[in-house]
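Explain this fold:

***
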Amino acid sequence: MKKKHFLFSIFILFICSVSATTVNVRILSTKVINSFIFSPLKGSYLLYGDGMMLSETDASGIFQMTIEKDSIVLKTFEKTIGKYSSIRMQAKEQDASFKIKSVIPESKVRSYDNNLTVEIGADKKQFQLINRVDSEKYIAGVVESESGTKTSLEYYKLQAILCRTYLLAHINRHIAEGFQICDDVHCQAYLNKHKEEDIWKAVIDTRGMVVVDSDLNLITAAFHSNCGGQTVNSQDVWAVATPYLKSIKDTFCTESAHAKWQRSIPLEDWRSYLQLKHKYPIDDSLQMNNATSFTQPNGRSIYFVDKDLKIPLKIIRADFQLKSTYFSVEQKGEMIVFNGKGYGHGVGLCQEGAMKMAKQNYSYKDILKFYYKDVHLVDQTALNYFRLE
């Protein structure tokens, strides 16, 4: 055991030499797609129907696929190629990429790296589109989807490490459904291949780096848009206390875009909500006064007003679709006004705070240690070696 901890401290210097791996991601997973168009964006593709090669296509090739009963009808502009139970677009080059545009329902064009497998979902009413993609290219797409463009390279490095850690910790979340992860926030947002070159540089510069706790377990790499000045203990949101996800004061995000918000609802709707859903005593003048003049003066609270009733703020947030649980309540005439801070669940990394830190020349290691306590950066290929007794 002593040898393991000694090696851990040595290899904490990051051995960034991992072999390329792939991940199967269900894309456009929130859309019920009945027909779409596929075309190569870069490179050439081999087209397979039910395992048999049908043709080869380059960037000039355009194919439409539509569900008819239990089959996928494959067409070009000129002809119908055939009907199949599954279709695979196999990239011939490592840097090949493709475009997809949903026709039914109509949506914007999206682009992705590497390969595509097309199947019919279990309900026989929609496509199941699976992007088999190099994991580092997937991470680059996630970083851009989750944090946008036009921020700093140092921040992108941190976000890449967290996205990679999250991927490995949840790699088989959807394995029973025929793919590994989805492209929605249920896993991680993955809306397109990356376009920002600094994002790809950040992914390559941190290739293989992940975050582990003191027991060498991949951390829950939680992050959110803006904490409003204070992050949240994990147990206050998910009822599970995690040592490295502790509430901290954060002054870096308080002037950012999502630092403050406001929402108004009719006073009568607020009264009815409290009485009908939470059995709140609205006939008690003192209790009702508290319910219309609620504040969180000492940082984030967990419950609303009455400690005996224990109405979780996260329930109120969900019911009224508020941006966070960090809010006050005040009555203005016949309206109730929520004055809020932050955006998101508040656990872990505050993205806007971290972006501000990066702009102030904090390193990605410094930012990581600010938001996550007692964690370590390691290379993913070293984890099994560290775990040896």
